[in-house]
Amino acid sequence: MRPAKHSINANRMFDRVLRHKLAAISAVVLLGLALLSCCAPLIERLLGVDHTDINLYNRFAGPSLTHVLGTDELGRDLFIRLLYGGRVSLSIAITAAIIASVFGTFVGLTAGYYGGWLDRFLMRFNDAFMALPLLPLLIVLAAIDLEKVGVPRSIAESDEISLYRIIIIVSMVSWNTVARLVRAETLALRESDFTRAAQSLGASSSTIIVRHILPNSSSPIIVATTLSVGYIILFESVLSFLGLGVQAPLTSWGHMLSNAQELIWSAPYLAILPGLMIFITVIACNFFGDGLQDAMDPRAT
Protein backbone atom coordinates (compact mmCIF):
# COMPACT_ATOMS: atom_id res chain seq x y z
CA MET A 1 0.00 0.00 0.00
CA ARG A 2 1.49 3.32 -1.03
CA PRO A 3 1.65 6.08 1.57
CA ALA A 4 -0.70 8.99 1.18
CA LYS A 5 1.07 12.07 -0.10
CA HIS A 6 0.89 14.94 2.35
CA SER A 7 3.25 17.02 0.25
CA ILE A 8 2.15 18.92 -2.81
CA ASN A 9 3.42 19.01 -6.34
CA ALA A 10 6.66 20.99 -6.71
CA ASN A 11 5.28 23.08 -9.57
CA ARG A 12 2.17 24.02 -7.58
CA MET A 13 4.32 24.92 -4.59
CA PHE A 14 6.51 27.12 -6.80
CA ASP A 15 3.43 28.86 -8.19
CA ARG A 16 2.11 29.48 -4.68
CA VAL A 17 5.43 31.00 -3.60
CA LEU A 18 5.36 33.30 -6.63
CA ARG A 19 1.82 34.40 -5.74
CA HIS A 20 3.02 35.25 -2.24
CA LYS A 21 4.70 38.53 -3.23
CA LEU A 22 6.66 39.07 -0.03
CA ALA A 23 7.97 35.51 -0.15
CA ALA A 24 8.98 35.86 -3.81
CA ILE A 25 10.76 39.15 -3.17
CA SER A 26 12.45 37.69 -0.11
CA ALA A 27 13.66 34.70 -2.11
CA VAL A 28 15.22 37.00 -4.70
CA VAL A 29 16.87 39.09 -1.96
CA LEU A 30 18.28 36.03 -0.20
CA LEU A 31 19.51 34.54 -3.47
CA GLY A 32 21.14 37.85 -4.41
CA LEU A 33 22.89 38.14 -1.04
CA ALA A 34 24.09 34.55 -1.27
CA LEU A 35 25.44 35.00 -4.81
CA LEU A 36 27.20 38.27 -3.97
CA SER A 37 28.75 36.74 -0.86
CA CYS A 38 29.91 33.66 -2.75
CA CYS A 39 31.41 35.86 -5.47
CA ALA A 40 33.24 38.10 -2.97
CA PRO A 41 36.76 37.00 -4.09
CA LEU A 42 35.85 37.58 -7.74
CA ILE A 43 34.34 41.03 -7.04
CA GLU A 44 37.38 41.86 -4.93
CA ARG A 45 39.66 40.99 -7.84
CA LEU A 46 37.59 42.96 -10.33
CA LEU A 47 37.68 46.08 -8.14
CA GLY A 48 41.39 45.66 -7.53
CA VAL A 49 41.14 45.85 -3.74
CA ASP A 50 42.00 43.57 -0.82
CA HIS A 51 39.61 43.49 2.13
CA THR A 52 42.53 42.80 4.49
CA ASP A 53 44.72 45.71 3.32
CA ILE A 54 45.12 48.41 5.96
CA ASN A 55 45.68 51.96 4.71
CA LEU A 56 45.61 54.49 7.53
CA TYR A 57 45.99 57.32 5.01
CA ASN A 58 42.63 56.36 3.50
CA ARG A 59 40.51 56.04 6.65
CA PHE A 60 36.79 56.89 6.49
CA ALA A 61 37.01 57.58 2.75
CA GLY A 62 33.73 58.21 0.93
CA PRO A 63 32.29 56.08 -1.88
CA SER A 64 34.30 55.96 -5.10
CA LEU A 65 34.75 53.76 -8.15
CA THR A 66 37.39 51.74 -6.30
CA HIS A 67 35.69 51.71 -2.88
CA VAL A 68 31.97 51.41 -3.65
CA LEU A 69 30.84 52.07 -0.06
CA GLY A 70 33.97 53.82 1.16
CA THR A 71 36.45 52.57 3.75
CA ASP A 72 36.39 51.81 7.47
CA GLU A 73 38.47 53.04 10.40
CA LEU A 74 41.54 51.15 9.12
CA GLY A 75 41.14 52.11 5.47
CA ARG A 76 39.75 48.72 4.41
CA ASP A 77 37.14 48.49 1.67
CA LEU A 78 33.75 48.39 3.36
CA PHE A 79 31.78 46.84 0.49
CA ILE A 80 34.10 43.84 0.16
CA ARG A 81 34.19 43.38 3.94
CA LEU A 82 30.37 43.29 3.95
CA LEU A 83 30.47 40.55 1.30
CA TYR A 84 33.03 38.51 3.24
CA GLY A 85 31.03 39.11 6.41
CA GLY A 86 27.97 37.79 4.59
CA ARG A 87 29.86 34.65 3.60
CA VAL A 88 30.64 33.92 7.25
CA SER A 89 27.24 34.90 8.67
CA LEU A 90 25.26 33.00 6.04
CA SER A 91 27.57 29.97 6.24
CA ILE A 92 27.12 29.80 10.01
CA ALA A 93 23.35 30.24 9.75
CA ILE A 94 22.78 27.68 6.99
CA THR A 95 25.17 25.07 8.41
CA ALA A 96 23.85 25.41 11.96
CA ALA A 97 20.24 25.32 10.73
CA ILE A 98 20.86 22.09 8.83
CA ILE A 99 22.67 20.44 11.75
CA ALA A 100 19.94 21.51 14.18
CA SER A 101 17.22 20.27 11.83
CA VAL A 102 18.88 16.88 11.37
CA PHE A 103 19.22 16.40 15.13
CA GLY A 104 15.74 17.77 15.84
CA THR A 105 14.25 15.52 13.16
CA PHE A 106 15.95 12.47 14.67
CA VAL A 107 14.65 13.32 18.15
CA GLY A 108 11.15 14.07 16.87
CA LEU A 109 10.90 10.88 14.79
CA THR A 110 12.21 8.72 17.62
CA ALA A 111 9.94 10.25 20.26
CA GLY A 112 6.84 10.28 18.07
CA TYR A 113 7.14 6.80 16.61
CA TYR A 114 8.25 4.76 19.63
CA GLY A 115 6.35 6.75 22.27
CA GLY A 116 6.25 5.52 25.87
CA TRP A 117 9.12 6.26 28.26
CA LEU A 118 11.43 7.20 25.39
CA ASP A 119 8.98 9.87 24.21
CA ARG A 120 8.62 11.23 27.74
CA PHE A 121 12.39 11.30 28.29
CA LEU A 122 13.18 13.03 24.98
CA MET A 123 10.43 15.62 25.40
CA ARG A 124 11.49 16.43 28.98
CA PHE A 125 15.04 16.76 27.65
CA ASN A 126 13.66 19.13 25.02
CA ASP A 127 11.71 21.08 27.66
CA ALA A 128 14.84 21.40 29.80
CA PHE A 129 16.72 23.00 26.90
CA MET A 130 13.83 25.34 26.16
CA ALA A 131 13.64 26.41 29.81
CA LEU A 132 17.27 27.54 29.90
CA PRO A 133 17.90 31.30 29.48
CA LEU A 134 19.15 31.34 25.92
CA LEU A 135 21.44 34.37 25.76
CA PRO A 136 23.32 33.68 29.04
CA LEU A 137 23.71 30.05 27.95
CA LEU A 138 25.18 31.11 24.60
CA ILE A 139 27.56 33.53 26.31
CA VAL A 140 28.78 30.88 28.78
CA LEU A 141 29.32 28.29 26.04
CA ALA A 142 31.12 30.79 23.79
CA ALA A 143 33.41 31.90 26.63
CA ILE A 144 34.70 28.39 27.43
CA ASP A 145 38.48 28.06 27.10
CA LEU A 146 38.88 25.21 24.63
CA GLU A 147 42.34 24.25 25.88
CA LYS A 148 40.94 23.63 29.37
CA VAL A 149 38.42 21.12 28.00
CA GLY A 150 41.08 19.10 26.21
CA VAL A 151 41.24 20.69 22.76
CA PRO A 152 44.85 20.71 21.44
CA ARG A 153 46.51 24.13 21.40
CA SER A 154 47.09 23.99 17.64
CA ILE A 155 43.35 23.63 17.05
CA ALA A 156 42.22 25.98 19.84
CA GLU A 157 44.38 28.78 18.42
CA SER A 158 43.57 28.26 14.74
CA ASP A 159 41.87 31.02 12.75
CA GLU A 160 38.79 28.93 11.92
CA ILE A 161 38.07 27.53 15.38
CA SER A 162 35.80 30.45 16.32
CA LEU A 163 33.69 29.72 13.22
CA TYR A 164 33.29 26.03 14.06
CA ARG A 165 32.60 26.75 17.72
CA ILE A 166 29.78 29.18 16.89
CA ILE A 167 28.21 26.65 14.52
CA ILE A 168 28.28 23.95 17.19
CA ILE A 169 27.01 26.23 19.96
CA VAL A 170 24.12 27.65 17.95
CA SER A 171 23.17 24.19 16.65
CA MET A 172 22.92 22.94 20.24
CA VAL A 173 20.17 25.44 21.08
CA SER A 174 18.25 25.53 17.78
CA TRP A 175 16.85 22.00 17.38
CA ASN A 176 13.91 22.21 19.81
CA THR A 177 11.28 23.62 17.45
CA VAL A 178 12.00 21.07 14.72
CA ALA A 179 11.87 18.23 17.25
CA ARG A 180 8.41 19.23 18.49
CA LEU A 181 7.00 19.75 15.01
CA VAL A 182 8.33 16.42 13.72
CA ARG A 183 7.09 14.59 16.82
CA ALA A 184 3.59 15.97 16.35
CA GLU A 185 3.59 14.99 12.68
CA THR A 186 4.96 11.52 13.48
CA LEU A 187 2.28 10.90 16.11
CA ALA A 188 -0.38 11.47 13.46
CA LEU A 189 1.37 9.51 10.71
CA ARG A 190 2.09 6.41 12.78
CA GLU A 191 -1.66 5.84 13.16
CA SER A 192 -2.34 6.25 9.44
CA ASP A 193 -3.49 3.40 7.19
CA PHE A 194 -0.28 3.20 5.15
CA THR A 195 1.84 2.88 8.31
CA ARG A 196 -0.36 0.09 9.67
CA ALA A 197 -0.25 -1.64 6.29
CA ALA A 198 3.55 -1.50 6.25
CA GLN A 199 3.64 -2.93 9.78
CA SER A 200 1.31 -5.78 8.82
CA LEU A 201 3.58 -6.62 5.88
CA GLY A 202 6.52 -7.00 8.26
CA ALA A 203 8.40 -3.79 7.52
CA SER A 204 10.91 -2.85 10.20
CA SER A 205 10.53 0.29 12.27
CA SER A 206 13.53 1.93 10.62
CA THR A 207 12.09 1.22 7.16
CA ILE A 208 8.72 2.68 8.09
CA ILE A 209 10.34 5.79 9.56
CA VAL A 210 12.69 6.42 6.64
CA ARG A 211 10.44 5.44 3.71
CA HIS A 212 7.00 6.47 4.94
CA ILE A 213 6.99 8.87 7.89
CA LEU A 214 10.03 11.03 7.13
CA PRO A 215 9.02 11.96 3.55
CA ASN A 216 5.53 12.92 4.72
CA SER A 217 7.02 15.07 7.50
CA SER A 218 9.22 17.07 5.14
CA SER A 219 7.01 20.18 4.99
CA PRO A 220 7.34 21.26 8.65
CA ILE A 221 11.04 20.37 8.59
CA ILE A 222 11.76 22.58 5.57
CA VAL A 223 9.72 25.48 6.89
CA ALA A 224 11.24 25.33 10.38
CA THR A 225 14.76 25.13 8.92
CA THR A 226 14.14 28.16 6.73
CA LEU A 227 12.79 30.21 9.61
CA SER A 228 15.64 29.21 11.91
CA VAL A 229 18.24 30.69 9.52
CA GLY A 230 17.13 34.20 10.46
CA TYR A 231 17.19 33.46 14.20
CA ILE A 232 20.66 31.92 13.97
CA ILE A 233 22.01 34.99 12.19
CA LEU A 234 20.75 37.04 15.14
CA PHE A 235 22.38 34.67 17.65
CA GLU A 236 25.70 34.83 15.83
CA SER A 237 25.49 38.61 15.55
CA VAL A 238 24.85 39.00 19.28
CA LEU A 239 27.79 36.78 20.21
CA SER A 240 30.11 38.50 17.73
CA PHE A 241 28.95 41.91 18.96
CA LEU A 242 29.86 40.85 22.51
CA GLY A 243 33.29 39.71 21.31
CA LEU A 244 32.52 36.00 21.81
CA GLY A 245 31.76 35.07 18.22
CA VAL A 246 33.83 35.12 15.07
CA GLN A 247 37.37 36.34 15.66
CA ALA A 248 39.83 38.11 13.34
CA PRO A 249 41.03 37.54 10.66
CA LEU A 250 37.54 36.22 9.90
CA THR A 251 34.73 38.74 9.89
CA SER A 252 30.95 38.61 10.07
CA TRP A 253 28.22 41.22 10.16
CA GLY A 254 28.06 40.96 13.94
CA HIS A 255 31.84 41.29 14.18
CA MET A 256 31.70 44.43 12.02
CA LEU A 257 29.03 45.85 14.34
CA SER A 258 31.26 45.17 17.34
CA ASN A 259 34.17 47.01 15.73
CA ALA A 260 31.94 49.98 14.87
CA GLN A 261 30.34 50.52 18.29
CA GLU A 262 32.98 53.06 19.38
CA LEU A 263 32.58 55.00 16.13
CA ILE A 264 28.78 55.19 16.13
CA TRP A 265 28.77 58.99 16.39
CA SER A 266 31.75 59.84 14.19
CA ALA A 267 31.14 57.25 11.45
CA PRO A 268 27.60 55.83 11.90
CA TYR A 269 27.59 54.15 8.47
CA LEU A 270 30.10 51.58 9.79
CA ALA A 271 27.37 50.30 12.11
CA ILE A 272 24.35 51.06 9.91
CA LEU A 273 25.50 49.01 6.93
CA PRO A 274 26.17 45.64 8.65
CA GLY A 275 23.10 46.22 10.84
CA LEU A 276 21.04 46.79 7.72
CA MET A 277 22.37 43.58 6.17
CA ILE A 278 21.36 41.62 9.28
CA PHE A 279 17.92 43.26 9.32
CA ILE A 280 17.26 42.60 5.62
CA THR A 281 18.43 38.98 5.82
CA VAL A 282 16.40 38.14 8.94
CA ILE A 283 13.23 39.80 7.60
CA ALA A 284 13.67 38.07 4.23
CA CYS A 285 14.10 34.68 5.93
CA ASN A 286 10.93 35.21 7.96
CA PHE A 287 8.85 36.33 4.97
CA PHE A 288 10.17 33.49 2.83
CA GLY A 289 9.49 30.98 5.60
CA ASP A 290 5.92 32.25 5.97
CA GLY A 291 5.36 32.03 2.23
CA LEU A 292 6.88 28.55 2.09
CA GLN A 293 4.62 27.44 4.94
CA ASP A 294 1.56 28.64 3.04
CA ALA A 295 2.79 27.08 -0.20
CA MET A 296 3.42 23.66 1.39
CA ASP A 297 0.06 23.54 3.16
CA PRO A 298 -1.90 20.77 1.38
CA ARG A 299 -5.17 22.41 2.45
CA ALA A 300 -4.36 25.63 0.57
CA THR A 301 -6.01 26.24 -2.78
Short description:
With 301 residues, this protein is mainly α. The chain contains 14 helices and no strands.
Keywords:
301 residues; mainly alpha; MetI-like fold; 69% helix; globular
Q: What gyration radius follows from the Cα positions, in whole Å?
A: 23 Å
The CATH topology name reads: MetI-like fold
Question: According to CATH, what is the class?
Answer: Mainly Alpha
Total number of distinct structural domains: 1
Number of strands: 0
Strand pairing plus helix content: what structural class?
A: mainly alpha
Arithmetic mean of pLDDT: 82
The major β-sheet equals:
none
| Beta-strand share of residues | under 5%
The ordered string of helix (H) and strand (E) elements is HHHHHHHHHHHHHH
**Roughly how many Å apart are the termini?**
27 Å
CATH superfamily: MetI-like
Q: Roughly how much helix do the residues carry, as a percent range?
A: 55-70%
Folded structure, characterized:
The protein has a single domain (10-55, 65-295), classed as Orthogonal Bundle (MetI-like fold). Helix 4 (78-114) packs parallel to helix 8 (161-172) and helix 4 (78-114) packs parallel to helix 9. Residues 1-7 have low confidence and may be disordered. It has 301 residues and is mostly helical. It is 69% helix and 0% strand. The longest helix has 37 residues, at 78-114.
